[in-house]
Design brief:
By secondary structure, the protein is an alpha+beta fold. The protein has 14 helices and ten strands.
């Protein structure tokens, strides 16, 4: 079935659980990205179901700012997803070179917000909104695609495909995780994505993360208890209105956050003075970034390994015990 339609041309990227190849649709001749799950993970029922869920959810959500899935399937030990071929880089990779210009930041958040609201309108909570799941298409204009719905929650239908999510399972990436998601990933609603988008926006605007403890347990405690550092303390050139935006975008009480991602993005744009575009406009030379990483970059690198550990319930139990002590 796979070989009848899809031709693999060359490798594009390698991840912990899958490989991505440039391919061709034999039926149309169209270039395609083909994501193939590593056999050792495809053999695990839970991992395979999450892989297939990513494809099903993305197919449900037809939107200009969500990666389009064309087909998916499993042939014996081989599980695969065929999707539109994207040329460019992730927002994570772009952040490694420093903050983008403010005008680009606002455009990125606007487009991601539209994708997030579309997903929510379709009954889907992403649950892993982070820079590595935002893809910047190559070209002069800012164009964004949201990736990876493998952790997505289908509202009111979580168990319909046999995929069980324990109430104490920690799903997502801790740096961008909402307080209620730390307490119970299985029961979150769309407001958790709004928190995560707020963290991404905060990082883009300030060049730092609001919570950046190096140890995962310490990070979870910070998210649950530590006051959000006002953006102007990270960069004094920012307008005071951004501080007010951050207080609402990262309110621990989910009912106090912006009601939609689009409203969050609109409020961020209104809080920024367009004249500040020059603040992040200068591109730092790559060698300079390597010598002097920002706190956000250091935290992101240090927590890449810790993030994988954080998906276990044991880490959650440690954080809660620390919180109560």
């Amino acid at each position: 079935m796979f070989a009848e339609r899809w031709e693999v041309v060359e490798p594009l990227a390698s991840g912990s659980t899958s490989e991505v190849y440039r391919g061709v649709d034999r039926q149309t001749g169209e270039a395609t990205a083909i994501k193939v799950m590593r056999p050792e993970y495809a053999a695990r029922g839970e991992a395979l179901q999450r892989f297939q869920r990513e494809a099903r959810v993305a197919q449900m959500l037809t939107h200009p700012h969500i990666v389009a899935v064309r087909d998916f399937g499993a042939d014996g030990p081989q599980a695969w997803i065929a999707m539109e071929l994207l040329e460019g880089e992730t927002l994570e990779a772009r952040l490694e070179r420093g903050r983008p210009p403010v005008a680009d930041v606002l455009d990125v958040i606007d487009q991601v917000a539209r994708a997030v609201d579309h997903a929510h309108a379709g009954g889907v909570v992403h649950r892993d909104m982070k820079p590595d799941n935002v893809f910047l298409l190559a070209g002069a204009a800012v164009r964004v695609k949201v990736l990876d719905f493998g952790f997505a929650k289908l509202l009111n239908t979580l168990e319909s495909d046999g995929l069980k999510t324990a109430s104490n399972a920690l799903l997502g990436t801790p740096l961008y995780m909402a307080p209620e998601q730390i307490r119970s990933s299985a029961t979150v609603d769309p407001r958790a994505d709004l928190w995560s988008l707020g963290v991404v926006a905060y990082e883009l605007v300030t060049g730092a993360l609001p919570f950046d403890a190096r140890a995962t347990a310490d990070l979870l405690v910070e998210i649950l208890t530590k006051p959000v550092e006002p953006p102007t303390r990270r960069d004094a050139r920012l307008p005071a209105a951004v501080d007010r935006w951050a207080l609402r975008a990262l309110a621990r009480d989910a009912t106090q956050r912006y009601p939609t991602a689009t409203e969050l993005a609109r409020a961020l744009r209104a809080s920024m003075d367009p004249s500040l575009a020059r603040l992040a406009g200068a591109t730092t030379a790559p060698h300079a970034v390597a010598r002097a990483l920002t706190p956000a970059q250091r935290a992101r690198r240090a927590l890449r390994v810790a993030a994988a550990v954080a998906v276990c319930a044991a880490v959650l139990a440690i954080a809660i015990r620390l919180l109560r002590s």
